[in-house]
């Protein structure tokens, strides 16, 4: 469904669902491009007071006036939700609108949260002896750097992992080199940690696209000279 789909609300007093006291429960019907979803508002009305054309009670009791006010609040909330979804370029359909209204929308997976979940696996690998302590510490440090980077660039310590873009990856690499003073090989190691986390998210279908597609990171080969006899003696004496 397109994110800017037009939607309508209809408020209905359900005769078929009449309560024991004879009142009709009020339902709201959400329609988007032919798709329909309904939900019970938890309110009811005396049948002779319900004006279906105006979708409100014509009674003058305090209870009737409160019902009409609540219906207006419901309308306003649905329009607010719809505008938010359109503004953020997200999908709009009756179920999504209803779930947002009820507050049952599943919270998105967050980048740093998923990173820490991956770090738990690294910890298990460390305990098994599959990785060394320095590798595990790099993973721990990387998520701290990510939080610092997000705070600096987006004024938040975490973002939905599905919002990670190729540009964010490039900016994080630049942050590592410029702000944290990482040499090429250190920066590459940290970025590869992030890549591993994104592939983990992709495998679990928390994201649909891999922001690392087309990116290559090459470590610099360094020649390490042998220690001199003097240097060896210095180490031994220490």
What does this structure look like?
With 238 residues, the protein is an alpha+beta fold. It has 7 helices and 5 strands, in the order βββββααααααα. The strands form 2 sheets. It has a 3-stranded antiparallel beta sheet, with helices on one face. Strands 4-5 form a two-stranded antiparallel ribbon. It is elongated, with a radius of gyration of 29 Å. It starts with 6 loop residues before the first strand and ends with a helix.
In short, what is this structure?
The chain is of the alpha+beta class. The protein has seven helices and five strands. A hairpin with a 2-residue loop joins strand 2 (24-32) and strand 3 (35-45).
Summarize this structure as a short list of keywords or feature phrases:
238 residues, alpha+beta, 7 helices, 49% helix, 13% strand
Strand content: 5-15%
Side by side, the strands of the main sheet go: 1-2-3
Average predicted local confidence, pLDDT: 91
Question: What Rg is obtained from the alpha carbons, in whole angstroms?
Answer: 29 Å
Q: Please bin the fraction of helical residues.
A: 40-55%
Give the strand tally: 5
How many H/I helical runs?
Answer: 7
The major sheet is characterized as: 3 strands, antiparallel
Structural class computed from helices and strand pairing: alpha+beta
Name the overall outline.
elongated
Report how far the terminal alpha carbons are from each other.
Answer: 70 Å
The poorly predicted ranges are: none
H/E element order: EEEEEHHHHHHH
């Amino acid at each position: 469904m397109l994110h800017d789909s037009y939607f309508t609300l209809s408020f209905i007093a359900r005769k078929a669902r009449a309560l024991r006291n004879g009142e009709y429960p009020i339902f709201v019907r959400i329609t988007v491009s032919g798709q329909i979803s309904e939900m019970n508002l938890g309110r009811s009305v005396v049948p002779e007071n319900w004006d279906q054309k105006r979708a409100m009670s014509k009674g003058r009791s305090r209870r009737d006036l409160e019902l009409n006010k609540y219906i207006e609040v419901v309308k306003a909330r649905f329009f607010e939700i719809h505008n938010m979804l359109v503004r953020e370029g997200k999908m709009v359909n009756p179920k999504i609108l209803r779930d947002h209204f009820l507050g049952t929308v599943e919270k998105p997976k967050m980048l740093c949260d998923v990173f820490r979940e991956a770090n738990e696996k690294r910890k298990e690998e460390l305990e098994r002896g599959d990785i060394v302590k320095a590798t595990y510490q790099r993973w721990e440090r990387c998520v701290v750097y990510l939080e610092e980077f997000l705070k600096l660039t987006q004024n938040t310590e975490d973002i939905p992992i599905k919002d990670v873009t190729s540009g964010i990856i490039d900016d994080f690499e630049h942050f590592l080199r410029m702000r944290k003073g990482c040499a090429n090989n250190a920066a590459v190691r940290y970025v590869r940690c992030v890549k591993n986390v994104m592939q983990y998210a992709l495998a679990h279908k928390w994201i649909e696209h891999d922001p690392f597609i087309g990116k290559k990171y090459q470590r610099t080969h360094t020649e390490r000279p042998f220690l001199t006899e003097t240097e060896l003696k210095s180490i031994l004496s220490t």
